[in-house]
From TrEMBL:
Residues 61-301 form the AMP-dependent synthetase/ligase domain. One of its GO terms (molecular function) is trans-cinnamate-CoA ligase activity. Pfam families: AMP-binding. It is an enzyme of class 6 (ligase). GO terms for biological process: phenylpropanoid metabolic process. It catalyses: (E)-4-coumaroyl-AMP + CoA = (E)-4-coumaroyl-CoA + AMP + H(+); (E)-4-coumarate + ATP + CoA = (E)-4-coumaroyl-CoA + AMP + diphosphate; (E)-4-coumarate + ATP + H(+) = (E)-4-coumaroyl-AMP + diphosphate. InterPro entries: AMP-binding_CS (IPR020845), AMP-dep_synth/lig_dom (IPR000873), ANL_N_sf (IPR042099). It comes from the Eukaryota. GO terms for cellular component: endoplasmic reticulum; membrane. This is 4-coumarate--CoA ligase. It comes from Aegilops tauschii subsp. strangulata (Goatgrass). Its EC number is 6.2.1.12. Its cofactor is Mg(2+). PROSITE patterns: AMP_BINDING.
Length: 330
């Protein structure tokens, strides 16, 4: 039998004895040949990933998007880690002012964007479960997830607000607040008011709490940080409870793997966010980049052939993304 290259044996098997069945040998990845990394001191939750990055890399570019000028995509506009932190702090206080506490559920519905990440970090800070919403399973999936997860507040891309309203009246059993990443129309305000809900534009919600500051809860590794709904099962989507520890360990594992193949991340790397944040893969990769103080640029939804400058990391995980030139704010 050829020697296995990608796994190492860490425990021998045992034959059957005294009525107990036999047990085969135990293997683990060769990347962990010498054991697992020690936990990072102070890194106990997903919020700590963001908090520690802000403390270490406050002026690094964190989130970028292409500004639309006269209907055309212009240069990338970037916010630093400190700027993102300040906005997330305001969003978190506004969420708490709506009555949510640790363990409450917040839905996020829309394509990857700076607002998506900012909302997620606000939830992480206050121990609110982040519940990504996506409609690849059909229109009924949004209504089901809102009700099944008992979502109390939902953030949505501007063009997705109308889809949220289609879940009325059933979703209003739990849903009390809607926040648009963009603007809100008068018709939407009138529709929402019929059911006793509140709706805000992004700018309105940022200032909702005013000067009110809420204390952050103690977030532990065993706490749930997100509920991700499956996309590959039959029947209704299944909500998977994911803890802080699960994401922290996964990030550590991916980081270890990259280091082992000489692909160490640097704070100068840039990640093109393309795959849906509603799935755990992209979320983990983006949090890994945050851990290293690197940058995340968001695509606009235009699928064309990829052509990226060398300053962009190879970790794009996509084949068709925004064409990004030198001199376009990269």
């Amino acid at each position: 039998m050829a020697e296995m290259q990608h796994v190492v044996k860490v425990e021998e098997g045992r034959p059957a004895a005294d009525g107990r069945p036999s047990v085969g040998p135990t293997y683990r990845s060769a990347f962990a040949r010498d054991g697992f990394l020690a936990p990072v001191d102070g890194l106990d939750s997903c919020y700590d990933i963001f908090r520690m990055a802000v403390e270490k890399y406050p002026n690094n570019r964190m989130l970028g998007h292409r500004a639309i000028v006269d209907g055309k995509a212009g240069a990338y506009v970037w916010r630093t880690y400190k700027e993102v932190f300040d906005i997330a702090n305001k969003i978190g206080n506004s969420i708490r002012s709506c009555g949510l506490t640790k363990g409450s559920r917040c839905g996020i519905y829309g394509a990857n964007s700076p607002e998506w990440i900012i909302t997620m970090e606000a939830c992480n800070a206050h121990g609110v479960y982040c519940v990504p919403l996506y409609d690849t399973l059909g229109a009924g999936a949004i209504e089901f997830i809102l009700c099944h997860a008992e979502v109390e507040i939902a953030f949505a891309e501007e063009k997705k607000v109308a889809e949220l309203l289609k879940t009325f009246p059933k979703s209003t059993e739990f849903l009390k607040t809607i926040v648009s990443f963009g603007k809100v129309t008068q018709e939407q305000k009138e529709e929402v008011s019929k059911y006793g809900l509140s709706i805000y534009s992004w700018d309105e919600f940022i200032s909702l709490a005013g000067d009110q500051e809420f204390d952050l809860p103690v977030n532990q590794r065993t706490d749930i940080c997100t509920i991700m709904y499956t996309s590959g099962t039959t029947g209704d989507p299944k909500g998977v409870l994911i803890s802080n520890a699960s994401i922290i360990c996964l990030i550590a594992g991916v980081d270890r793997l990259l280091n082992s193949v000489n692909e160490r991340l640097e704070e100068t790397d840039v990640y093109m966010s393309y795959l849906p944040l509603a799935h755990i893969f992209d979320r983990v990769v983006e949090e890994l980049f945050m851990f290293h103080g690197a940058s995340i640029g968001f695509w606009r939804g235009v699928s064309i052939i990829m052509c990226l400058p060398e300053s962009f990391s190879w970790l794009c995980f996509c084949t068709c993304i925004d064409y990004l030139k030198y001199g376009a704010g990269c």
